[in-house]
Amino acid sequence: MSRSSSGDRVTYGGTACRRRQPHTALAGWEPPGVPALRTRL
């Protein structure tokens, strides 16, 4: 598991996103499954 901070920029499936809130990465918490955690850029 990895921990991310609010405001981190990440790329998933070729799409850039910014984290809305800090969270620990867990299976099933990918961007399509939990859109409330990320903002698409």
UniProtKB/TrEMBL annotation:
The keyword 4Fe-4S does not apply. Residues 6-37 form the Chitin-binding type-3 domain. The keyword Hydrolase applies. Residues 1-41 are annotated as: Disordered. Keywords: Hydrolase. It holds the Pfam family CBM_5_12. Gene3D superfamilies: Carbohydrate-binding module superfamily 5/12. InterPro entries: CBM5/12, CBM_sf_5/12. SUPFAM superfamilies: Carbohydrate binding domain (SSF51055). This is Chitin-binding type-3 domain-containing protein.
